[in-house]
Amino acid sequence: MLTLWILVAISYERLPRTIPIHFNALGEADGFGPRFTVWLLLGLLTGIFLLLSAIGRHVHRFPRKSGEGPATEAEYRTLRLFFQWLKLSILLVFAIDIALLFPAVMGNATRQRPWLLPVNIGILLLPTAWLLWTVLRQRRTPA
């Protein structure tokens, strides 16, 4: 994440005053805003990252259904790992988006890549798929 902050800080002055901030499904820019929007994007990333870090540290406080016994250490470990994977996937999506935004803004590319949206969705769904697979596998394994 620090690398992204440094990349933006170094490149910020070279950005035009107005940059594309939204792309349609074909990768064409259809929304524009001031260049400081890049800082808002990084602020959002940092906020999400810190929030997920805090949640991941307190998985032992998650409520459980009445009648269920206390969670096992393996369940806590799985949840903590899920939040780590989720943070990594969000960081990866933001890094890809910012890295591809700069060429589009600087005029080196006329559009974002059309494959970007499905790739981003896939990256974001991987931690959830892993969690479901792990939980289902743990439930099939006798205690």
Structural description of this entry:
- The chain is mainly alpha-helical and 143 residues long.
- The chain has one domain (2-140).
- Helix content is 62%, strand content 8%.
- The protein has helices at 2-11, 37-57, 73-105, 116-140, and strands at 18-23, 29-34.
- The protein has a two-stranded antiparallel sheet.
- Helix 2 packs antiparallel against helix 3 and helix 3 runs antiparallel to helix 4.
- The radius of gyration is 19 Å and the shape is elongated.
- 8% of the residues are buried.
- The model has no long low-confidence stretch (mean pLDDT 85).
Question: Layout of SSEs?
Answer:
Blueprint lengths: L1 H10 L6 E6 L5 E6 L2 H21 L15 H33 L10 H25 L3
Antiparallel strand pairs: 1-2
Helix pairs in contact: 2-3, 3-4
Number of strands: 2
**Content-based structural category:** mainly alpha
Mean pLDDT: 85
Q: Largest sheet, if any?
A: 2 strands, antiparallel
> What is the H/E order?
HEEHHH
Report strand order across the widest sheet.
Answer: 1-2
Shape: elongated
Q: What is the compact description of this entry?
A:
It contains four helices and two strands, in the order αββααα. The chain has helices spanning 2-11, 37-57, 73-105, 116-140; strands at 18-23, 29-34.
Keyword list:
143 residues; mainly alpha; two-stranded antiparallel ribbon; DUF1648 domain-containing protein; transmembrane helix; membrane
